[in-house]
Write a structure and sequence with these properties.
It is a single chain. The protein has two domains: 46 residues; 230 residues, MetI-like (MetI-like fold, Orthogonal Bundle). The chain contains twelve helices and two strands; from the N terminus they run ααββαααααααααα. A hairpin with a 6-residue loop joins strand 1 and strand 2. The N and C termini lie far apart (49 Å). The relative contact order is 0.14.
Amino acid sequence: MKRTRSHLSDTTTRMILAAAAFSSLAFLAGILVVLFREALPALRQIGFVELITGTDWYPTYRPPSFGAAPLIASSIQVTVGAMIVAVPLGLASALFMSEAMPARARNIIKPVVELLAGLPSVVYGLFGMELVAPLIMQAFDLPTGLTALSASIVLGIMALPTVTSVAEDALSAVPSACKEASTALGATRWETASKVVMPAASSGIITAVLLGVSRAIGETMAVLMVAGGAIRMPSSFLQPVRPITAAIAAEMGEAPVGSMHYHALFALAVILFLSTLAFNATANALKNKFKAKVE
């Protein structure tokens, strides 16, 4: 009787887990179907090439113009800027926590860093509006501090806890035997960290950077609040810009359902989805390459 009950319990657990897994796939498939279905009219009428290469985004003009190149370029600009801020600081912080910080201090600092990763994006947006933007405006004598530089700094700060936490986990997972062997051969602490620990944790470090980029490129609220909202081809980090996510958030509520503007915003979402997919595939290939090289 007990064996039968145990068997039924295991079967029920497997069925529940399988249902949860398949439900996630079903939800993902549903999102993709809705996304591409709503974007298809715009892609047919405007054309994918014209959409991504056009430089004029005037959806309310007569006739309207749907050129997303300024939005795409702005997304790339603020994401690259955010990574310039987050990756060096995040990896340096992770290396310090894993290799130099005392265990007692690390047990306090690590949860604090992870807590920062869970703060709502609107909090970072308010921080950017009240502190970062005024400092940028005063430092560069600008008419407004809501610029690509402000957005890059805020996004970099948002991505920093994610990069730091995941990279620290990867560095701490390197077996101590590798470090001890390097030290026994006469390597200094820095040589051990840079030539042994970091290469051994390269796959985890790439994952940390990937998660940081994903946080930055998909962020909406903070970018909407801090980037300035100007639709223009970016030529400087000191100009207001409007990335794709900010454009979708700002305009979706005003676009009539079923209009070409409405479908064009879904087409922007498709561009963002395809860009993220391509980036993730490239990052995964690089991760496997570094992992194979280390092994």
